[in-house]
Amino acid sequence: MELFSCTKISDRVWQIEEDHGVFCTLVRGSELAALIDTGYGNRNLRAFVEAHVSTPYLVINSHGHPDHIGGNHWFDVVYARKDEWDVIEHFEEHEERTCELRDIQVGSSLSLGDVHLEVISLAGHTKGSIGLLLKEEKLLIAGDALNEELWLFNYGALSMRELYETLKETMQVDFSWYLCGHSSRKYPKEKIEAHIRNIENLKVDEGTKADTIGFETYRSSFEDGCGKSELVFTADRLL
Ligand SMILES: [Zn+2]
């Protein structure tokens, strides 16, 4: 029985649903594959990857939240940006880390043979969030950094101002589509503009105050022709 459901994005790219609404991305190049994120880790993701990949592969964390690093324990080596290592440590649920963490640097380019992944900073959702840009397909694999409902709170999250700067910089990067960690769909780059406009028109409305996983958060909603944006944040991120 197949334990993971998959959505084909292109001939090389698959969104793998590791848990309900939690996605990892698999990119298969001619000589090397890359698994981006490892979900909560309750099911054997390694067996799944090795059944579907005929080349060596790398495992990369987009950022350190528990629904993206939880399956690291299935693997021997995992790459993550050094700026994010303390976030990973903060959220690690397994008492003793069993995989080796290795640094992956912003600006580096990974050759998968016929295609390349370029590492870009998507700092905001967390301080060391990265995106992997599949250059040949103009596709940015963005983890949680560009989710339609973008969370900006908890350990490691940056300020709204820093998120805004990252979003503006991301619009300068050459890509057409992006993938998120909580959706099987690919989104057009223009949709990021909705987040930018949401921040430019940000209202802190007491009426939206809610408990989100134990944090007192506010919600700002915005929608226009570019798409929909929901920002969920704590007041301290506005300072
Ligand atoms: Zn996250």
TrEMBL record:
This is MBL fold metallo-hydrolase. Residues 21-182 form the Metallo-beta-lactamase domain. It comes from Fusibacillus kribbianus. The lineage of its organism: Bacteria, Bacillati, Bacillota, Clostridia, Lachnospirales.
